[in-house]
Write a structure and sequence with these properties.
single chain, 374 residues, alpha+beta, Hypothetical upf0131 protein ytfp, Nucleoside Triphosphate Pyrophosphohydrolase, 3 domains, 8-stranded mixed beta sheet, 4-stranded antiparallel beta sheet, globular
Length: 374
């Protein structure tokens, strides 16, 4: 049996049980590690431990863990560059030897001291859902491979939580999620995106449950999209970039005109994503947002969900250019056009990305009001 010291998110019992795949797996008692302190990894939702003379890292001592338990925990932690290291912790029964997961102290930029209560309030539900997907790959994918996929795993987890909590109108037929009976779920493909295959039954409009059917969905995330508009100059900004979808379809021109768009990071609001993406993709500081619509672009085959906004912006001559993040292989050209020129492109069929069509048509309806209030 192995003894471990948990100083971070694994002190949250539901998360620990998710990683272990069972409850009551070990004896947990409060413990302290002198001369160490847990800090947030700056900009992230998890901590790391660093030497801090005179400080104390609070935690839990886990005793009686099996080899299988340790293997599952090491899978959860090990892919992120943490390795088990022996230490001596203080308990009510005196000093005890345990192992902890440590990483090189210069691996991460240090944030504020780690606060478990703050993590439980802001991040626990996200990390719990992400841990479920991570541990579903135990024994099938390496820890390093899952760690590489973790940013998208976390965003998918957050998207599911948004879907569960977002107020939505009732369907005219009165049917809800309670009218679906899921029999089996599988994930035959997981990488940057995923595919989820279900065998399920859903209620028919005559009130009876239908037969079992096999259905699948492309699993992506929520995304925020923004059409920048300058009501003083009556101009919009459109982005042009290479897109894989049209390329795979065989389109002669896989470069498409689009709004600003980006996936919503775990813990971010759609509005925060909209402001961030405007800066990253186009170098724009938006002065305000107007919600256009929220919804599914293709619900028959994907869970992807769009939050579309009009972004108020200053678009003088020279506001266009080339932007994007090298870390995301982005090469994005921005175009500043008059409203009439953009609508001309739409009328000629030169804009083929439907969210941009939606945003331009919304702007056509509300443009005079926006200009009058500018």
């Amino acid at each position: 049996m192995t003894t471990l010291f948990f100083y971070g998110t694994l002190r949250h019992l539901p998360l620990l049980e998710t990683v272990l795949g069972r409850s009551d797996a070990c004896r947990l008692t409060p413990a302290q590690l002198p001369d160490w302190q847990a800090y947030w990894v700056k900009g992230q939702g998890y901590p790391f431990l660093t030497k801090a003379p005179g400080e104390v890292a609070e935690g839990l001592l886990a005793e009686g863990l099996s080899a299988e338990d340790v293997a599952r925990l090491d899978y959860y932690e090990g892919g992120f560059g943490y390795a088990l290291t022996p230490v001596t912790v203080q308990t009510a029964e005196g000093p005890k030897t345990a192992q902890i997961w440590l990483t090189a102290e210069d691996r991460f930029e240090r944030g504020a001291p780690f606060d478990l209560d703050a993590w439980e309030t802001r991040r626990a539900a996200i990390n719990m859902r992400a841990a479920e997907e991570m541990m579903s790959h135990f024994g099938r994918k390496s820890a390093e491979e899952v760690a590489r996929l973790y940013p998208m795993i976390e965003m998918r987890a957050y998207s599911r939580l948004l879907g569960q909590s977002e107020p939505v109108p009732d369907a005219p037929g009165g049917l809800t999620r309670d009218d679906v009976d899921s029999e089996t779920v599988a994930q035959p493909y997981v990488d940057y995106f995923a595919v989820e295959a279900h065998r399920l039954r859903f209620r028919q409009f005559d009130g009876q449950m239908g037969p079992a059917v096999n259905l699948a969905s492309f699993v992506a995330t929520d995304a925020a999209l923004v059409l920048p508009y300058d009501p003083h100059r009556d101009r919009v900004m459109l982005l042009e970039q290479f897109r894989m979808g049209p390329y795979v379809r065989g389109d002669r021109v896989p470069w498409q005109m689009e709004p600003i768009a980006g996936r919503i990071d775990a813990g971010e609001t759609p509005e925060q994503t909209a402001y961030r993406e405007a800066e990253e993709e186009a170098g724009l500081t938006l002065t305000g947002l107007r919600p256009i619509v929220r919804g599914y672009p293709t619900p028959g085959c994907s869970n992807e969900y769009f939050h579309i906004y009009l972004g108020l912006a200053d678009l003088p001559d020279g506001a266009d250019g080339v932007g994007g993040l090298d870390t995301e292989s982005e090469n994005i050209r921005s175009h500043v056009l008059s409203f009439d020129a953009a609508m001309g492109m739409l009328d000629r069929g030169e804009i083929r990305v439907i969210p941009l069509v939606t945003a331009l048509l919304w702007l056509a309806r509300h443009r005079e009001h926006l200009r009058a209030g500018a």
